Amino acid sequence: MTSYGDDATVRGILTGTGGTWAVVGLSNNTARAAYGVARVLQRYGKRVVPVHPKAETVLGEPGYASLAEVPFPVDVVDVFVNSALAGEVADQAVAAGAKAVWFQLGVVDEAAYARTRTAGLAMVMDKCPAIEIPLLD
User: What predicted TM-score, i.e. pTM, was given to this entire model?
Assistant: First the structure.
């Protein structure tokens, strides 16, 4: 299987890219993976910005219906939508000026990966930051 995000890229995004993470697909549904991952990111000092059509406050952070509505810079866009929708989110991340895009485990869009890298962003695909970040300690 092809790896989309080597160890150096993973480490760079988690430690050097910046502390503001837009989590696309994050809602107050505590049973969803996005909620648990967002909690881990917060525990490691990241600011989590919920992006979900409901635009609800999650984990104490106000939510936005889309990336375009977030009124401040976002460093990393963490994508919890199915692969068919992920490419559009990656394109929105590029348009929003993000520095990196992270597609969660099971989210794969090779064309979006190539477009995002060509646009100059760091990108990881089919990995989970909540699994990777404790490995940095």
Answer: 0.95
- 78-113 per-residue burial string, b: 16 or more CB within 10 A, e: under 16: bbbbebeebbebbbbbbebebbbbbbbeebbbeebb
Question: In 10 A of CB 57, how many CB atoms?
Answer: 10
Mean pLDDT, residues 19-48: 96
Main-chain phi, psi angles of 3, to 5 degrees: -100, 130
One-letter amino acid for residue 76 of the chain: V
- Is the pLDDT reported for residue 38 higher than 80? yes
DSSP the chain: ---BS-HHHHHHHHHTS-SEEEEET--S-TTSHHHHHHHHHHHTTPEEEEE-TT---BTTB--BSSGGG--S--SEEEE-S-HHHHHHHHHHHHHHT-SEEEEPTT---HHHHHHHHHTT-EEEBS--HHHHGGGG-
CA 80 to chain centre: 7
Q: Which tens digit of pLDDT belongs to each residue from 68-118?
A: 999 999 999 999 999 999 999 999 999 999 999 999 999 999 999 999 999
